[in-house]
Amino acid sequence: MNRQISPLEWQNLSDYLDNCLSPEAQKKLDTDLLTRPELKQALQDLRLSRTLLKSLPRRRAPKNFTLSAAALPRRIPAFPYAQAFGLASALCLFMLLFSYLTQPVLTLGLLQANGPAPLSKAAVPMAERPGSAEPTPQVFTWGGASPADGSGFGGGAKTDNSAQAQVPIPPSAPAAALAPTSSGPADKTSPAPVPMAAAAPPEGANAPAVEGSGPILGIKPTAEQGLETGHSGTSLKQTPDVTTPATSVFPLVQSLLVGLAVLFALSALVSWFKYYK
Amino acid sequence: MDEIALVKSAQKGDLDSFNRLVLFYQDAVFNLACRILSDDSLASDAAQSTFISAYRNLSQFRGGSFKAWLMRMVSNKCLDELRRQKRHPQVDLEPMDSNHEEALETPSWLKDDAPSPESVIEMKELQIGIQHCLDTLPDDFKIVVLLVDVEGMDYGEAAQSIQKPLGTVKSRLARARTKLQDCLRGFRELLPAGFRLGEEEGL
Fold first, then answer.
1. Selected residue of A38, A56, A72, A74 to mutate for chain B interface (largest B Cβ count, 10 A)
2. Residue A23 maps to a domain
3. pLDDT tens digit string along B151-197?
């Protein structure tokens, strides 16, 4: 019988028992009850089962459940500054996460903002580095062009001992040429090779001619050494400028973190004492 | 009894006002717990725990039906207890009979929970049969039908008690009544003549 009644009709019958149907639905159900005997029987069964439930005797409480102040469990009073400490804890955690998450980003950003300086520093030739003050190896070519008598460059009586000091290109010269900022001083310290013809010694000169700024036996002139030293000093002074912003930002964050961490530890201690005492 | 005044006074910490509310509602709370749990001892514990929780959380009562608020608390307590029983079922390894002797020859604790025809005949009391049918219902359905049909709440109060929409109350109530009706057919012999389900057409 129940299969002939849809769940919606069962719900309508249940609502009908409690007078919770809308007037339209109730009128329709009244019509259906007249024409469908199974619906009428179902309504009768529902009414009887509900009457059975209502007929159940009410159980009386076996005792009074009234409360006494002594029987109530003692409630731990809330710490008056618990909210402030909780806020400090949350702030501490947030700052901690913020510092850990943003520290690499900030550092990278600072490096990128001062990008050309480190690059140019890296491109400074070895000759201009402070640690490389020792003279670069020099190559000397004695004599000028091929001798007219066909003799070689070795020593000999016939050979004109006029010498031409050819200053070779230092090994760091190509790097210096690539560096845009080091073009000024580097040019002075690494002289360009002198053409052989132009560097031909005058006739009759026995002593090796020292022309231009070429070093003699690897010892650079004092004036050029001074220039080199001055350049090295300049590059040393640029180093602190890169790290200055980073050191000025993070101590503030870290000191704030330490303060919040102390506050957090204090709140934990207070809560512990409050709970166990 | 001015329920609203008592509640407001109790919210300010007046324990006497709260105890007057307890005395007024304790039978309803215990009755509902008994019907849900089918155990007087557990129902007593649930009722006591409900009133303690109610006193502690009285500040959270925002008005409306205080009875519905209490019924929601006791319903939740009973559901928690039922869940605990399902998680940790307790079976006596050496069951004792009424004389506190081991009933090993007739181990009633081994029998099937479903009522056999003999046991149905033995259940002379109509209340046991009805309670058995109530126990066969799902917990959600049982609470709704107890609130509406046993405690006499209207749909709105029942919805407030179980914190569900009105439509949910209606559908659960209809399904619970249908299931109860089917179950009560098995106890037809126990019913008085006026309560014989489905026999009126044949008579």
1. A56
2. yes
3. 999 999 999 999 999 999 999 999 999 999 888 887 777 676 666 65
Question: Given an 8 Å threshold on Cβ–Cβ distance, is A54 in contact with B150?
Answer: yes
Does B77 share its domain with B136? no
In a domain, A34, yes or no: yes
How far is residue A103's CA from residue A115's CA, in Å, rounded to a whole number?
18
B137-140 contacts at long range (C-beta below 8 A, 24 or more positions apart):
B137/B176, B137/B179, B137/B180, B139/B36, B139/B79, B139/B82, B140/B172
ipTM: 0.75
Q: Mind listing the pLDDT tens digit for each residue in A264-277? A: 777 777 777 765 55
Range of the domain at B10: 1-89
Whether residue B194 is contained in a domain is answered as no
Cβ atoms of residues B148 and B173 within 8 Å:
yes
Q: How many domains does chain A have?
A: 1
- CB-CB contact of B58 with B7 (8 Å): yes
Angstroms from A242 CA to nearest CA on chain B: 59
B134 in the same domain as B50: no
**Structural domain includes residue A43:** yes
Instruction: Assess whether B81 and B119 both reside in one domain.
Output: no
Residue A45 covered by a domain: yes
Taking the complete model, does pTM exceed 0.90, yes or no?
Answer: no
CB-closest option in B40, B126, B184 to A62: B40
